[in-house]
Amino acid sequence: MLSRTAENLYWLSRYVERAENTARLLDVTMRMASLPQERKSYESEWRSTVIASGCEEGFFAVHEQATPAAVVHYLTSDPENPSSIISCLETARNNARMVRTGLSISMWEAINATWMELKNLGPDDFTPERVGRFLDWVKERSLLFGGTVANTMLRSDAFWFSRLGMSIERADNTARIIDVKYNILLPAYETVGGTMDFYQWASMLRAVSALRAYHWVYRDRVKPWLVAELLILKPEMPRSLAYCFSDVNRQLESLAAAYGTRGECHRLAGQIDARLRYSKIDQLFQQGLHEFLTGMVDDTRVLGEEITRHYLA
Questions:
Q1: Whole-angstrom distance between the N-terminal and C-terminal Cα of the chain?
Q2: What Å distances lie between residue 112 and 141, 186, 269, CA to CA?
Q3: Helix, strand or coil, per DSSP, at residue 82
Q4: Which residues contact 13 (CB under 8 A, 6 or more apart)?
Q5: Nearest to 213 by CA among 238, 245, 184
Q6: Separation CA 261–CA 236 (nearest Å)
Q7: CA Rg, the chain, in Å?
Q8: Rounded CA gap, 142 and 28, in Å?
Q9: What's residue 76's pLDDT?
């Protein structure tokens, strides 16, 4: 496969996944902002969403405060933000158009129909009062696209690059959400285990569609250390770091077997996968969860760069 084709497939999946992740973040922020709370905490909800999305620098270059209207506009429809939902879906469609013959018919129809429906939306659809319906639509379209990838693609290099992009993006997002919760969302006057803490942890589980999975696995009230264990170390949870990096390692191994070459990306993926597989949550808390998660974000970035250098450059 040409490196340009592989790159388009890889980034197609990354941008669709990024659009869904941003929609989930905004949906949970709106839920949390509707709860009674002090002004400081209210503002921190919106600020934390900008930080978790990785758009902090660009946002505060043009906005002084993280107000609901400003955050919603910047993360959903601002054409100047390359990571806004609309920008992500348009970029994904452009990547799909470049490799249309490498996609199944269902994949192309899913992404193209999404792009066409975007054209029917107006400014009123992105106001804080009405944006909820748009966010639900984005999540549905992303799930539809993911289903077409899983159920219609041949298990060949096209599929492996698509899955690789999705899992890299999902791992980065999960690590950011957990890290932001620990360091920004919890107000200074709250102790871990307080009322606000409970709602914030529950909202984070909803952000990754894991609230029901949590109760199924632990059959207990929401506890921070158990939530962290589920979203970091449980390989059964499809949005956990353990699952995502196991999948990244699996796709890279398939590519290595098909192409007969290995690079630094394969070593890094195997190292991260093994670290997560054999870690325990109490060890991560002892070494510092913030330090571990920021390290995971950095490792994900470096791994992405090595994948680009080995396969996509």
A1: 13
A2: 11, 40, 32
A3: coil
A4: 149, 161, 162, 163, 164, 165, 166, 169
A5: 238
A6: 30
A7: 19
A8: 17
A9: 95
Cβ burial of 110 (10 Å; 0-12, 13-18, 19+) is buried
Q: Which amino acid is at 286?
A: Q
Per the rule left: phi > 0, alpha: psi between -120 and 50, beta: everything else, 121 is: beta
> For 219-268, how does the pLDDT look when each residue is reduced to its tens digit (9 = 90+)?
888 888 899 999 999 999 999 999 999 999 999 999 999 999 999 999 99
Cα–Cα separations (whole angstroms), residue 97 to 102, 108, 175, 229: 10, 8, 31, 40
Q: Name residue 197's amino acid.
A: D
14 close to 166: Cβ distance less than 8 angstroms: yes
Contact by Cβ (8 Å): 86, 77: yes
User: Can you give the residue ranges of every domain in the chain?
Assistant: 1-153, 155-313
Return the structure tokens found at 43.
Answer: 């503002």
Whether residue 303 is predicted with pLDDT greater than 90 in this model: the reply is yes
Rounded Cα gap, residues 155 and 255, in angstroms: 11
Q: Report the sign of the C-alpha dihedral through residues 162, 1, 296, 23, in that order.
A: negative
Q: What is the pTM of this model?
A: 0.90
pLDDT-wise least confident of 75-84, 96-105, 184-193, 231-240? 184-193
Q: Length of the chain in residues, anyone?
A: 313
Average pLDDT over residues 2-18: 95
